[in-house]
Design brief:
Layout (H helix, E strand, L loop, with lengths): L2 H6 L4 H7 L4 H4 L18 H9 L14 H12 L6 E5 L2 H12 L5 E5 L4 H8 L1 H4 L3 E5 L4 H11 L3 E5 L11 H10 L3 E5 L4 H4 L9 E5 L13 E5 L1 H13 L6 H32 L5 E5 L9 H7 L6 E6 L9 H15 L4 E2 L9 E5 L25 E5 L5 H15 L2
Parallel strand pairs: 2-3, 2-4, 4-5, 5-6, 10-11
Antiparallel strand pairs: 1-7, 6-7, 8-9, 9-12, 11-12
Helix pairs in contact: 2-13, 5-13, 6-12, 9-10, 15-16
């Protein structure tokens, strides 16, 4: 234990994950909270029912839609590992959590700023659901602070949506600088923190008002559940809770139990996948078939300095670009798609599929230019050439042996030369 930990009594991430949410009234005499499946909560007397109506907090029985001990324990555990959180809400998916955050803050007539490297369902929500509600939006380059400040002055936005590292291209933005500018303008900052989780980046402590994550990824850890969560200080937690309950959002107690099980081992899994991903990214950067690796854990990455300053951990998700010299006679989008398809088809240990953060490694062809509107910063990844686009791959590194994954990637790269 470090001297600082001895002085403050602070616990490490693995200790927090092992003990979080284990309140005796929810676990009883066992280690894990039992799975409480219930829609109806019974009361001994009518007076007890009336008293329950006046209380609206986790830990108070009311009706199954407000959860029970299994869901409460998970929410409390997530809250325990999120510095600065007053409360945490659970949602049936990560996208549901995104919607819950937006609808808790925005109303018709408001304007939303959305980072241009946001997860595509976030972009779609701004263009679809929010637009139908009369909420306008603008995309912004998160690496261009002066342009961001100008948009704050121009639009007087109600909220700004952040994501770091950014989806697909793994750009790391200066969250403290962005949130400070937003707060000075009276703008609410919401962060999608799925990549790092609270164990790798303390979003609320770095100026965000609300932090959300998809629990389907690292927390679940086994690719067998869908869930999301959002944490905030008291003001915005109350707004999240009110909106969630009005929308009837509730998660299955069985899924909550699975997420709680995944949470206990998440620090060790993240430690392994981060280390493995860094080694694999370093190896890929040396391969002649690879023109660019987008991974903030690399010293050569444009976002590494900010990542090192603000983050306490990483994860197994990163991307890389294949050299267009291997696309054969095809060029442009079709050539990039063909080349990316050839590569992922040749992999044996990497599945082809969406999501990430599970125990198994995944690969996915990606086309970031299809999801960008304004990113032009000098530090933004450049994945275009004279044909307009290059083949890019996103890898989610699982818990397999690093050497085995490198060998698999090597044989797939060799096949591109044939």
């Amino acid at each position: 234990m470090t001297d600082k930990k001895q002085e403050t009594g602070a616990k490490g991430p693995a200790t927090k994950a092992a003990h979080a949410g284990r309140r005796a009234e929810w676990t009883g005499a066992v280690v894990n909270p039992p799975v409480w499946r219930a829609s109806t909560h019974l009361y001994a007397k009518y007076a007890d029912l009336k008293a329950a109506n006046k209380s609206n907090a986790d830990g108070g029985f009311f009706y199954g839609r407000r959860g029970g001990p299994t869901q409460w324990a998970l929410a409390q555990a997530l809250n325990d590992i999120e510095p600065g959180a007053h409360g945490t809400m659970l949602y049936p998916s990560g996208v549901a959590a995104i919607a819950g955050c937006m609808l808790s803050v925005l109303k018709p007539g408001d304007h939303l700023l959305v980072t241009d490297n946001a997860y595509d369902p976030t972009r779609s929500m701004a263009r679809g659901l929010l637009a139908r509600m009369g909420i306008t939006h603008s995309f912004f380059d998160p690496l261009d602070l002066p342009a961001f400040a100008a948009l704050l002055d121009q639009h007087n936005p109600r909220a700004v949506w952040l994501e770091s590292p950014g989806s697909l291209t793994m750009d790391v933005c200066d969250i403290p600088a962005l949130t400070a500018a937003a707060r000075a303008a009276g703008t609410v900052s919401i962060l999608d923190n799925t990549w790092a989780s609270a164990l790798g980046f303390a979003g609320l402590s770095h100026g965000c008002d609300i932090v959300m994550q998809s629990l389907s990824k690292h927390v679940g850890g086994h690719s067998d559940l869908m869930m999301g969560a959002a944490s905030a200080g008291e003001r915005w937690y109350r707004a999240l809770r009110r909106t969630s309950q009005q929308l009837g959002q509730v998660v299955s107690p069985d899924d909550a139990a699975l997420a709680m099980r995944g949470l206990r081992t998440m620090p060790m899994r993240l430690q392994h996948t981060t280390s493995s991903a860094a080694a694999i990214a370093e190896w890929l950067a040396q391969q002649p078939q690879v023109s660019q690796v987008m991974c903030p854990m690399l010293l050569s990455d444009p976002g590494h300095a900010i990542w090192s300053r603000d983050f306490t951990g990483g994860c197994g998700l990163f991307s890389f670009v294949l050299s267009s010299a291997h696309s054969g006679d095809q060029s442009g989008y079709d050539g990039a798609s063909h080349l990316a398809g050839r590569f992922v088809d040749a992999l044996e240990l990497f599945g082809i599929g969406y999501s990430w953060g599970g125990f198994e490694s995944l690969s996915l062809p990606i086309f970031p230019h299809d999801y960008r509107a304004v990113m032009t910063s000098p530090t933004a990844p450049d994945i275009s050439d004279d044909t307009g686009t290059r083949a890019a791959i996103r890898l989610s590194i699982g818990i397999e042996d690093t050497e085995d994954l490198i060998a698999d990637l090597a044989q797939a790269l060799r096949k591109l030369d044939n």
